[in-house]
């Protein structure tokens, strides 16, 4: 039996990848929303962060991924040796990330943590499962409460939030936001129809990434301003 083709065909992304920093060992880039991190199995899903970068940086290696709709900072190794050094940092959980998001509703309390184990569901979904899920922990802080107009122009209460994930599970911030009762605007997988319709994109952006430079050992905190 032939394997089923990936049913998802990514729309063409016309936005460019912005290089925030470059040296002989790494790149720090700003991934646009609407671009795959890695090329998909379907031939029409060839365009991706890795595909584009490999045209110029032939041994570029992605150390982590961002969801298709998520924008923001990514760390890229420029050779196998550097990839190994940085991969060990990811495995040791010494790399720290923050994300900016806009959530439906007024989030209270304004500081907190979400602890809910995540397991694979029916593709492409993840599920919360106490029996088979892997531990997942997210800290959050409300930056401010905002009003977002709906399709009729009526203002809807929302919250701009800074997330600090302590683990790195697939779809962690999207599903944890739903568990909090405040889904991310524009999320096609875990938000209600009302929350999905409040934004033209997934309102999730990787804002900062802290790591030790693989050659100098210096702790670096790189930042990428949110476009929303």
Short description:
This protein has four helices and twelve strands, in the order ββαββαββββββααββ. It has 228 residues and is of the alpha+beta class.
Describe this structure as you would to a colleague.
With 228 residues, the protein is α+β, with helices and mostly antiparallel strands. The protein contains four helices and twelve strands. The protein has helices at 49-56, 80-91, 172-180, 193-196; strands at 18-22, 26-31, 61-62, 71-77, 96-104, 111-115, 118-120, 126-128, 137-149, 155-165, 204-212, 219-223. Strand 7 (118-120) and strand 8 form a beta hairpin. Residues 1-5 have low confidence and may be disordered.
Quote the beta fraction: 25-35%
Low-confidence stretches: 1-5
The gross shape turns out to be globular
Number of strands: 12
| Helical content band | 10-25%
Order of helices and strands: EEHEEHEEEEEEHHEE
Biggest beta sheet attributes: 10 strands, mixed
Tell me, rounded to a whole number, the average pLDDT. Answer: 96
Radius of gyration, in Å, reads: 18 Å
> What is the end-to-end distance?
46 Å
Distinct helical segment count: 4
């Amino acid at each position: 039996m032939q394997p089923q083709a990936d049913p998802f065909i990514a729309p063409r992304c016309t936005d460019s990848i912005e290089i925030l920093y470059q040296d002989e060992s790494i790149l720090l880039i700003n991934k646009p929303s609407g671009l795959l991190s890695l090329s998909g199995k379907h031939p029409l899903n060839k365009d991706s962060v890795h595909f584009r970068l490999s045209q110029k940086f032939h041994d570029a290696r992605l150390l982590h991924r961002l969801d298709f709709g998520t924008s923001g900072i990514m760390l890229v190794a420029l050779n196998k040796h550097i990839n190994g050094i940085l991969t060990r940092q990811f495995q040791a959980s010494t790399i720290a990330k923050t994300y900016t998001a806009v959530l439906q509703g007024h989030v209270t309390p304004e500081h907190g943590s979400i602890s809910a184990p995540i397991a694979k569901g029916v593709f492409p979904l993840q599920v919360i499962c106490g029996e088979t899920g892997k531990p997942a922990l997210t800290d959050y802080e409300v930056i401010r409460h905002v009003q977002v107009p709906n399709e009729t122009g009526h203002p809807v209460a929302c919250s701009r939030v800074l997330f600090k994930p302590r683990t790195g599970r697939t779809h962690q911030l999207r599903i944890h936001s739903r568990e909090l009762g405040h889904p991310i605007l524009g999320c096609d997988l875990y938000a209600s129809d009302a929350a999905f319709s409040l934004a033209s994109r997934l309102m999730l952006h990787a804002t900062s990434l802290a790591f030790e430079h693989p050659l100098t050992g210096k702790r670096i905190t790189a930042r990428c301003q949110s476009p929303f």
